[in-house]
Amino acid sequence: PMMLYASRQPKKVRPMAKYLAAKIIHEIPRYPNGTQTVDIGVQAFDKLLQGCHSILSSFVESYLNVLERLLESRVEYYQVLGTGSVRPHAAPSCPTVLRCSL
């Protein structure tokens, strides 16, 4: 449903991504209570990245803000979640050394 909505309402993707990012960022310090919300939110961003290349600029800033918070977290689970989210989206033209270090 989210992918269909994003493709039909591209102007609404930016506010949707900002809301999703704010919700995830709010839940990160609440570990372990906020883990489910963070997992689902990161999965939602991953789906957007996989299917909405034409409107990537609408939500990439929010996605990167979430990744920054995950990677800066002291919780190893969130650090792994952040790196796991980045790795599948590394460009094939990106040198292997850089993709492996993500």
What's this, in brief?
This protein is an all-alpha fold and 102 residues long. It has helices at 2-8, 13-27, 35-51, 56-72, 76-86, 96-101.
Q: Give the SSE order as H and E letters.
A: HHHHHH
Query: How large is the count of helical segments?
Result: 6
Give the end-to-end Cα distance, rounded to a whole number of Å: 30 Å
Rg (CA only)? 14 Å
Mean pLDDT: 82
For the biggest sheet, the summary is: none
What are the segments in which pLDDT stays under 50 over at least 5 consecutive residues?
A: 94-102
Shape: elongated
What is the strand and helix layout of this fold?
Blueprint lengths: L1 H7 L4 H15 L7 H17 L4 H17 L3 H11 L9 H6 L1
Helix pairs in contact: 2-3, 2-4, 3-4, 4-5
